[in-house]
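Full entry
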Amino acid sequence: MRKEIYITDYNCVTPLGFNVDSNWKALSAGQSGVALHKIIDNQDAFYASMIDSDKLNEEFSRFFDYAQNDIPNFTRLEKMLLVSLQPLVEKHPVSEDTAFILSTTKGNISLLKNQSELPECVYLSKLAQRIADFFGFKTKPIVISNACVSGVMAIAVAKNMIQAGRYKDAFVVAGDELSEFVISGFNSFQAIGSGPCQPYDKNRDGINIGEAAAAAYVTGCHSDEGRIQKNEKFSFKVLGDSSVNDANHISGPSRTGDGLYASIKNAMDEANVSPEQIDFISAHGTATLYNDEMEAIAFNRMNLQNIPLNSMKGYYGHCLGASGLLESIISMESALHNTLLPSKNFEETGVTQPLNIIRESQTAEIKYILKTASGFGGCNAAVVLEKC
């Protein structure tokens, strides 16, 4: 009998707060983490979303009972991941059949600066093992590093591996940090916006890079057992998922939205959900010219143009490997609060196909959520979630 897969707990660490509640309050108040930051020496400041390092160290010390001068030699990214994951591990025991899944694009890439030798934890497998060992995971860590779709794919990998009987449950953690490496890369092909990013807006001119960590607990039960019962405050069923590569270009998305369209169609087919049943779309929405246009085309091809849609990039920037999981968490919070958040900085449609961009906060009954992501190398992913 096929298992039904549920997300029953989650957490996040962002510039807007170090837990879900503080993030939701900030988002409800319209706050954004995007601001001017000096990131690269001898260059102007960039609009980006950055976590306060002093506050992160304070939170890390509080969580793990370390004195400020006695903190182990964890990197800044590792602290973000640990603080994000800690509340979940406290509530859900780790067993011999528990998977540990890390989603990241660049990991500890900042360690490469001014290094004559490669530090061990710059390798993604070593980074994952370091976090897994800290919490006592007994299975070999799984690393998902597929550009900007990594966070959504990590949810899908957890779902599919539990359904296949490989694991009983899974902890998914995702994170990336602001780095000179990433900023320089995006700046080299003029993809960084001149101001706070404006997804889908006619005046959009590029992305803001952000940083965050997010974590989710995923578990399952057989369909004949009914809805999972473990005294959780909430649960969301992972109904369907898909990842499709459009094989178009190393960085440019397919102009016809082929890969995203196929990902959405496959995920919705598996979920057995029609376009009319989707209540809300949490889109990728990077605020680059080609990405937003491609998404609009794909959504219209799927007859989703009338479904309320937002991008969270105006609040968090583009958090790379953390984006998909973080934005899924905020989407689930939206469903729990029966609230659709506006797509920040959107004023006037700048894509050729119609979209129902959310302009102001509004109440709504949200049962079915579609979360999408697209990224470099032609990768696209989608997942359908159901509020239980």
About this structure: The chain has ten helices and 16 strands. The first strand starts at residue 3 and ends at 13. Residues 169 and 223 are 16 Å apart (CA to CA).
